[in-house]
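Exercise: predict the structure of this protein bound to iron/sulfur cluster.
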Amino acid sequence: MKNQVKNYLQTNDLDVGFQDLNDLVINKQNCVFCGACISLCPRIGRNEKEPKLLEYDPECSTCFRYCPRTYFPTEMFEKELFNSDATKSYSLGHYQKLVAARSSDQTVLRKAQNGGVVSSLLIHALDSGLIDGVLLTDKDDNWYPKPVIARTPDEILTCVGSKYTISPTLITYSEAIREFKLEKLAYVGVPCQINAVRKLQLSSPLSDEYGKFKLIIGLYCFSNYTFDLLNIFVQGELGITLSNVKKFDISEGKFYVYTKDDSVKRVPIKMTKQYTWNSCQYCKDFTAELADISVGSVGAINNEWNSVLLRTDTGVKIFNDAIKTNKLITSDKVDLLKIEKNAFRKKTRITQIDEKTLNTMQLLDIPEFEIKTYLTLMSLGRANESLLSEIMKADINLVMSALKSLKHREWVLSSNGIYISVDPTIVINKEISNLRTIYLKKIGKLNSEVLPELESIFVRNNINQMRHREEL
Ligand SMILES: Cc1cc2nc3c(=O)[nH]c(=O)nc-3n(C[C@H](O)[C@H](O)[C@H](O)COP(=O)(O)OP(=O)(O)OC[C@H]3O[C@@H](n4cnc5c(N)ncnc54)[C@H](O)[C@@H]3O)c2cc1C
Ligand code: SF4
Ligand code: SF4
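Solution:
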């Protein structure tokens, strides 16, 4: 499998280009606007919400190959990144340790989103020589995210705080390497951005040139937003001037806007739902499962602390060094169950199919419950019988019998008690081919048996009338 994946990533004659990326990712609203394609190719630019082709496309395949939304070999990357002693959790991925932490630097603490662990770790990584620069997300006066390359502690501190809009943070990547000649980079981002960075770092052949990331810090993320959240909701509906906002926060089901004149506006998070970035609806990763270190606030004792998942050996080492040099302080007061609950909720979000498609699928003569089992499995990626029964809120025996029938029909595959859904193109094409065989058989019977029989009955019964017609 590893070789197949490597061949796929290395091959130079995929013969696909930006048009394919556009058709399969961008137009299907599957793009997370990470900025990888824009950074890798001078022919690709962007507007405020998506990449755009600027000029002639020689179809070199680079953008398609390195987009995290075309193909992503999760298991292969996990094998490269995590050692076998790491805990593997369904909701949180691989991690060696969960701990609560915060910065010991009052300046960082005053400015940071939560406990300032991200910024303090970066400053420590810079001071200790592990990195020589970091790709971060700053903002302009109206809170539009601004991808930047930070090379000093001050530049890192300018970027503190969460911007709840999607940011093409990777667009500065080529510049960092080609113009600033940075050799040892760090990256901070939400889980989908971390996947883009890992694909660049771990996939040959470009990783030889581009894989210079030494530290990858992921932020927990349940959902992110379009710029309409700022323009239409915050400025329009809440009537708050964006340049007067000091901080945004999302916590315990509420969206908070803190202003520079010390007022706070708090609204239920569901009011922001319509501004969600499209592909976030299908995202299953809450804790950035492929990061070296993942940082959030959920599970920490309060919002001035971070909960921290230490995943790779690189992550454990830099975190321990930061404690030894008194950059961070830690506590064991961290609520694992709370983080798992959030992550599980995100992983098990089920994409609902519309009624019309469901009815049409029943043309295939398959029970509705089996179609729903197949779709739930597709939403989850992979699951065992008890997880499916828990999520579908259905009796486990019903689920088991649906899976048995789906397996027989080749809609699902199973191995060691884990089920995965077969690619719908394969499923539907096979059903079409079965229907074609059935109908061709029926057509054959109509031609070879039914028609001659009816013709002869017709002739025998209407012979007089036919003669009459012939005479006429
Ligand atoms: C869109 C988004 C959603 C989040 N959702 C959750 C959640 O549901 N639950 C939870 O516990 N935590 C969530 N977080 C993480 C949380 O807000 C803090 O970022 C985290 O706790 C780290 O805190 P800190 O004080 O160490 O960060 P700081 O030291 O203040 O550093 C923050 C870092 O975040 C980076 N950053 C800011 N905005 C973005 C962005 N849009 N894209 C990429 N990088 C960015 C900055 O470059 C900066 O380095 C979310 C963060 C973001 C950006
Ligand atoms: S590489 Fe990133 S920005 Fe480009 S299409 Fe893919 S997800 Fe979108
Ligand atoms: S919800 Fe997923 S897709 Fe959306 S910003 Fe967060 S990590 Fe990216």
